[in-house]
């Protein structure tokens, strides 16, 4: 049972390039989330999804897009990367939503934008 | 303005030396306060959910408590393997799903 898997684990981009981070979960969870974690800032919610085909904005959505075409996958896209998007990105999933507080996190994707 | 504030930022203890970590929150209509543990290079791992003032949860050497303004994570007789960053979070509220996290307390337990 893999849980939440993020790919790639590491990526270096140049300013203006685009890329997609993939999150896959095998727990049949309805809810999925993308967070970013920066030194001194804590985890901040970018976008989330409450079910297949749905997406919603979190605290810091600007510069990112997401899609949830399949229940098990949640994609995070950067259309034109900026140095301010250098961060560690975490995907999480939950069976009943954030009300329970029990989110299962992946191991993170470290992105550097030069 | 931060909704969740954790203190101290870092704490170094000797093995067996008990202590407490603090999480204060300013949200109204709390819909749950949550504790996570994060090891270096890993994603956060869920520990506890607390919903009501006076509620307590325990797991091994950890005990979490909740008042109307803050939560404490008590660590009794810690071991080196308890070294990690401990994160506190509350529900976003306002019709949105998701958690808002504090910046964490980096705990080091020296043998």
Poorly predicted ranges of chain A? none
> What general form of chain B does the structure show?
globular
Give the biggest beta sheet of chain A. 7 strands, mixed
Helix share, percent of chain A = under 10%
Helix and strand run of chain B: EEEEEEEEEEE
Our estimate of the beta-strand percent of chain B is over 45%
SSE order of chain A, as H and E? Answer: EEEEEEEEEEE
Which term fits the overall shape of chain A?
globular
Evaluate the radius of gyration of chain B.
Answer: 14 Å
Number of helices of chain B: 0
Low-confidence stretches of chain B are none
Number of helices of chain A: 0
Measured between the Cα atoms of the first and last residue of chain A, the distance is: 36 Å
Assembly status: heterodimer
Q: Indicate the radius of gyration of chain A in whole angstroms.
A: 13 Å
Structural class of chain B: mainly beta
User: How much strand content do the residues of chain A show?
Assistant: over 45%
Mean pLDDT of chain B: 93
| Termini separation of chain B | 38 Å
Question: How would you describe this protein?
Answer:
The complex is a heterodimer of chains A (about 110) and B (about 110). In chain A, a hairpin with a 6-residue loop joins strand 5 (about 40-50) and strand 6. In chain A, strands 2, 4, 5, 6, 9, 10 and 11 form a 7-stranded mixed beta sheet that branches. In chain A, strands 1-3-8-7 form a 4-stranded antiparallel beta sheet, with no helix packed on it. Chain A is mainly beta. Helices cover about 0% and strands about 50% of the residues of chain A. The termini of chain A are far apart. Chain B is mainly beta and about 110 residues long. Chain B has strands spanning about 5, 10-15, 20-25, 35-40, 45-50, 55-60, 60-65, 70-75, 85-95, 95-100, 105-110. In chain B, strand 9 (about 85-95) and strand 10 form a beta hairpin. The interface of A and B includes residues 40, 43, 90, 97 and 102 of A.
């Amino acid at each position: 049972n893999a849980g939440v898997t993020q790919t790639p684990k590491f990526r270096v981009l140049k300013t203006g390039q685009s890329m997609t981070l993939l999150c896959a979960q095998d727990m049949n969870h309805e809810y999925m989330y993308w967070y970013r974690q920066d030194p001194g800032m804590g985890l901040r919610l970018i976008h989330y999804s409450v079910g297949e085909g749905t997406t919603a904005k979190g605290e810091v959505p600007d510069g990112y897009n997401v899609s949830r075409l399949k229940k098990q996958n949640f994609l995070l896209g950067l259309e034109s990367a900026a140095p301010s998007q250098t961060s560690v990105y975490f995907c999480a999933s939950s069976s009943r939503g954030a009300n329970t507080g029990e989110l299962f996190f992946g191991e993170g994707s470290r992105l550097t934008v030069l | 303005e931060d909704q969740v504030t954790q203190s101290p930022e870092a704490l170094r203890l000797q093995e067996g030396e008990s202590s407490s970590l603090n999480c204060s929150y300013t949200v109204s209509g709390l819909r749950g306060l949550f504790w996570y543990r994060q090891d270096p290079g890993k994603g956060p791992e869920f520990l506890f959910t607390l919903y009501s003032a006076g509620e307590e949860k325990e797991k091994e050497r950890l005990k979490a408590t909740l008042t109307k303004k803050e939560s404490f994570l008590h660590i009794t007789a810690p071991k080196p393997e308890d070294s990690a960053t401990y994160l506190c979070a509350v529900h976003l509220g306002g019709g949105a799903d998701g958690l808002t996290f504090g910046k964490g307390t980096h705990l080091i337990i020296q043998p």
